[in-house]
Every structure is written in C-alpha cells, then in structure tokens.
Description:
Radius of gyration: 28 Å
Oligomer: single chain
Distance between the termini: 51 Å
Amino acid sequence: MTNHESISTASKSIDTSENYSVNTEFPATDLHAIEHHPQVGFDPEKLVPSQTYVECGVEKLTALCHAVGLTDKLPQITEIFGALTASWGDRRVGDTSTWASDVSDDCAPFEFSLALDPDKAELRVLVEAQGSDPNLQSNWQAGRDLNQHLAQHYNVSLDRFEQIADLFAPTNSAAKFSMWHAVCFYPDKEPSFKLYLNPQAQAPSRAAAVVEESLVRLGFTHAWPTLAETAAQRGPDKDQFVYFSLDLAAHDKARVKVYIRHHDATPVELEAALSAAHNYIPGDAIEFCQAMAPGQTSFSAKSVISAFSWVEEDDATPSSSTLHIPISNYATNDRAVSDRIDSYFSQYGLPISTYYSTLQALATRPLEAGIGMQSYTSLRREHHKRRVTVYLNPEVNVVRPPLKIVPPQLEKSCHSLEEISWHYKTNSIEDHPFFQRLHREPANLTNLWLFFANVQEGIISHFTTRLSLIVDRIDDDLIRGVFAKQLHEELGNGDESHIHKEIFARFILGLEPYKPELVTREMLAPGLKLSQGLETLYSDPNPYVGVGAAILMEVRGEQRDKIVTKELVRTTLDSSVSSWFYLHGELEGDHADEVLNLARQIDNSDGDKAAVLQGVKMTADVLWNFCNDMYQACYL
C-alpha cells in the first residue's frame, strides 16, 4: 500500500465512539489538584497492549475538544487527525526505535497546542509524516504524499511550497527533520493547514541563504535585511534559522513564517529581535520572559525561539513577531508552570478556565509529578491583544521527573582555538545570502565593482598597517614570526611589482568601466563600517585580540578569493584585468594554513587564548555584518 493509499484508508477508519471513549464529564476545575488519571509517573509499558499511537492520540484529542468547546466538530477533527497520522498511526505507543521524532519532547510524532486570546480558543495539532523505514528522505517523501492528500481532500494550496521545495529537500544526515504538518481547529470556521520546513536540511551553514532565497522566490524581495539586521543581528553562531513555515492557503492573508533560535539570549536581546515586526509593542518580550522564567538573565538551558510572519502586502517588515519560551526548562514542575501562566492570564484577562480545562483533559498525572507536559509558551500581539499559546507535550513515551531546583545558568565549555578556527574554515562565508545571491543571478560586474571597492576601503588599504600593529605589540616570538613573514609577503618580499595592495588597486582600476554612473556615500558605507570595526579589533589594548582578528581574516580571505574566482569565470571580463586578481591570490600563498597551524600552537602555549578566541569571534561577526551591508548596497 502506498503512503497516499494508507492516508485515505486511515482517514476513513477512525471511530470516536466506543473504541476511544473518554470521560467527558469534568468536575468543576480544582486549580490545585489536576489528576485526570490517578497514576503518578506515567509508564508507557503499563498502557493497554493494543493501544497504538493513533488510538492514544484520538483519545487525548477527543478530551481536548470537549475541554475547548469543539465537541460538535469532533468527527471532522478525528478524520483529519487520522489522515495526518496515517504513516505511523498503527505503531505501538513507546516505539521510538526506528525514528525519534523531534516534534515533541518525548519523541512522539505529534504534539498539541492551545492558542488563547481574550475572545477565542484555537486547538492545534503538529505531526511528522514518516516513511515506512523512517529517515530524512523517506519522511520527506511521506510528507509530499500527505501534501497531495490534503490538496485533494481539504482544498489546501501547494503553490508556494512547490516554488521553494528544492531548497529544502534533505541532504544533511544530521538534520532533525525534513517536513512537518500542522492543522488549526476553530469553533467558527473551517480548519487551516500549515507546513514546516527545515532550513538546515541541506547544511546548517546554508540556513540563512535558504531562508533569503525562499523569501525572494515568494515575492518578499526586501525581507532579508530586516531579519539580518534586527531579528538575527547577533550572527549565525548565536541566531540560527531553524524553521520555515507556510500557510497552505491561496488567499492574501496566507502567511510565510521564519523561526530563529537565539542561543544564550538575554531578555533585552530578545526584545531587540522582536522589534523587527509591525505588531511589536515595546516591553512585551522582557515582561513575558520575566513572567514565564522569573529571574532568568539569559536563556542557556534551552534556547528561546522567535518567529516572524509576512503576508502578501508585507515586504521589508514582517507583520508580526512571536516569542516562544521553552518554559519546561525553566521550572521545577508543571504546577509551577501553570502558576506562572495563571498569573499572566489573570493580569491580562486571558481565559483561565479554558486553560485549566485543557490541562485537566490532557493530564495523566498530578502536575507536581513531572515537568514537560507544558513544553513552551508563546506570546504574539494580534490586533493589539495578547495571544498566548501553550504547547502540550502528549507524554505518551516518557515523563520527565520534577526538578528540585530550576537549573542554574549553564557555563558554556570553551572550545579550543583550533576547533573554532576550523569551524569558520568549514562553514564558509560563501554561504552568506549575499554571496549566494551573487552566484545564482546573472553575472553582474557592477555589483562586483561595489564589492571590491568596499573591500579595498575596509580591508586592503589598511591591512599592512594592522599587521604591523601585531608584530610591534605581541610578546610571543612565534606569533610575531608568523605575522612578520606574512607582512613581508604583503609588501612584495622586496619586489615593488608584487605589493599586494598595489596589485589589488590595478584590478579595481580594470573594473572601472563597470562602476555605477553615480557612486554615493551609501554605496561605500559598508567598507567604511568594516574598516572601523577591524580597526577597533586590531588596536585593542590586548594585542591577542588582534591576533584572533588576523587569524580569522586569513581564513575568510582564502574563502573570498574562491568566491570571486567563481564569479570571474562567469563574466566576460578581459583576462588582462582578471589576471591581476589571480596574481594576488597566488601571492597570498598558504596564509590560511599558516594561521590554522598557529591556532593549534597557541592552544598548546601560555598565550592569552581567551583574548584570541574573542578576536576570532568578533571578527567573524564584523565580516558577517559587512556581507549584510553589501546585500543592501547591491540589491535594495
């Protein structure tokens, strides 16, 4: 039976009467003694042996529907749930041996959530379609099969997905998922469907470029700079693109959403990220962080996620932003979580009774007996009203025991300098959306001139002076020797015709016919900003910071030369011009390999490794931001 056939069969076969009966007579909510089932510490091995994932899911979904006033829609809801879960629904609860799904914290392939604002409740289900032998590729195909079923039976639109599908087809074996589906159920309208894709499905380092190209293909041609400069302003190591979502609808309010995981973010940094959207209200993010995770100065136990939505009339600025806090990682048990949510709901007039009815319907244990049933809470403004979503882990496979104390702020282990340097070597700056767009569009010599003019101002014109600062100020003969050698080579080894700065200037002169007719100050602003950032690093009072900057500059310089070589091959530029660039590359020699070897030696020395690491990381951020600025200069 094909996936498509199994979907059709499953969606017709679910019976919500005797087989999945639940207690629908709920007593008045006792806010301090929720015990839907008497057992403490749920053990999936004690389940009825015949219970499958779909049976368990329908049982829980039925209880939730009664709790939130969707009883009259139960036949439709269970039919849709059957379709969504057809690829794995007949597996036994507890079976995660073939594929541990990342949908829920207990590896179940489904999760519920409840969205509440002062006026209404919305029940949602998130699932992962899976192949018969689950892996990234078979799950991707199972997801595409489910897409077709939804298109045929529920009138969803796949047009936007098909425009970008090739960007998300999985090739990265370490990726946690390839495609998820969600459905939203409402009391007063038909269900809506959403699709979640993985920007890291081909390579984590390409996630930003995948997001940018997807937005451009879908018509949001000015969206990337807002994400880069505000929502993900800390750079790709700290702000990572993790989900790309589509409403599977054709109307003009159908959303495109981008999700960012903010590693070790403070509430102030999250506030700054959320400010990118039209619906942002100052103070919301900080207040929500304090309400959901009191006293938390940074989120290091598990990272907070933000989401940004665009609709058809948006372009540069997203219409809305949402903050997702992994609350189960910042509380001792689910009672503590519910107390915080209760307090927030009471303060802002959100429906507490619906929230508690939902907990009572779902809970299989006292709230004090574990942590994780409520995995995330999120906040979004909708028509200026607060809208809070509680994400409900089904706890069908495992229940995390309660904690005695909230975990303290985690101390991040310090990677070696060699590891960090290799990280930047293997995760090339070529993956930045600026270079990826440069590659995918027709060769553009005007944009190349702009790039080189800014590189000349930001790097080349001052490079020997900055190397001299290191040679003059460093107290380590090994380090001084490496950079003295490179400085001598930059200056042509005594041969005036081989001075790197002069060779580069001749190359720029050869591109002169392609420069814009009017060169504005804004066009050269990226280079000036880059120069200021590098000057600060090289002249830092601690010269080892400058050493870190010099190491990273050589690693990125080698990558830059490879990027430009690809572009020059695509142009009609006369060889007499491009030869100057190739000569510059040849004379650079093995500088990148030399600094990588130096990084290893510094790790084994008594030098100030912390300062060198600081210089490496700060320089990476400066160069990433330079590429962000170049994107604006060339494409906006």
